[in-house]
Amino acid sequence: MIQFKGRLFLACTILFTCFFSFALFAQKPTVKVLTSGNGISLRGLSVVNDNVIWVSGNKGTVGRSNNGGKTWKWMTVAGFEKNDFRDIEAFDGATAVIMAVSEPGYILKTNDGGDSWKIVYENKSKGIFMDAMEFWNAQSGIVIGDPIDGRFVVTRTFNGGDSWQDIPFQNRPVADSGEACFAASGTNVRALDKDEAVFITGGLRSRLFTRNEPIWLPILQGKETTGANSVAVWDKNKLKGGKRMIVVGGDFMKPNDTEKNCFYTSDGGKTWEAPKTPPYGYRSCVEYFSKNEIYSCGLNGVDFSHDGGKNWHLISKEAFHVVRASRLGSAVYLAGPNGAIGKIVLDK
């Protein structure tokens, strides 16, 4: 009888495991391409809610959808037809801020859905290259740029992007030789908690910068094309100091190389762990959807982790530069080369 009960328990356990595995498989996330083919490289993506999405890219291009990506309004910002808008932060269907990267560097803002744009920041410094932008809330934001004279460019806003002030040179983070940032997806700077940001670097040296001392990253580095491209922080509002973080990158000249392309930390960067199964190549962006569900993307596809970054599964071979989750909803969108815009869907 005892033996029978043991076998029955084992059979029930196997049945439950199979059912649970089937349920996970049945809910496997996949990527649905919403639009592509306009020849624009899209690296800026801001998802206000499940319906309002903004994108930005080269050739002065900005796009907006108010219906979850079903239709798009495309616009070329007058006077900026040759500029590359590598990042965008949107607050609603009418208000957004865009960042043009280089010589001169510009930040522009619209309050009328993109019908008109106002220059709110201009930087004519030789060698200026702005990499990414982040907002803590509707008022406070930050832009990180590559080093000039050995220090990273940092500019801040406290009025929703209407005006910006550069951090004094002597207060800017010091860069190492050959160290810079990648303007790959607008996600190498993130809010760490309610009043602090964190940013990551790459190149000959790759580090994570916080208010304290910079932290060396174990990610692939040593060449101009290597290093960390994106950092994500899990729930900056609940975890003081953003203890749970993940970084991705690699070598963008080797899109299929998985060597040291992803690391995660649960103690604010004191220690780092490599995935058992890494993302399937160089990755330009990583995004938390929940504590355990994470997406990453790159030139050879999109990955999904259901266990906090320990194991990754390739869910699409479509190339994307950036993936972002809705701030006020449950949708996840992607943007990339040749005007590609995608959405994560559950394959039932």
Describe the model.
By secondary structure, the chain is mainly beta. The chain has one domain: Methylamine Dehydrogenase, Chain H (7 Propeller). It contains one helix and 29 strands. The longest helix has 25 residues. The two termini are 41 Å apart. The N terminus is likely disordered.
Contiguous helical run count:
1
Strand order of the largest sheet: 1-29-28-27
Q: Quick check: average pLDDT?
A: 91
| First-residue to last-residue Cα separation | 41 Å
One letter per element, helices H and strands E, the order comes to: HEEEEEEEEEEEEEEEEEEEEEEEEEEEEE
The CATH fourth-level homologous superfamily: YVTN repeat-like/Quinoprotein amine dehydrogenase
Q: And the CATH topology?
A: Methylamine Dehydrogenase, Chain H
Kindly name the structural category: mainly beta
The level 1 CATH classification is Mainly Beta
Q: If you compute it from the alpha carbons, what radius of gyration comes out, rounded to the nearest whole angstrom? A: 21 Å
Strand runs, count: 29
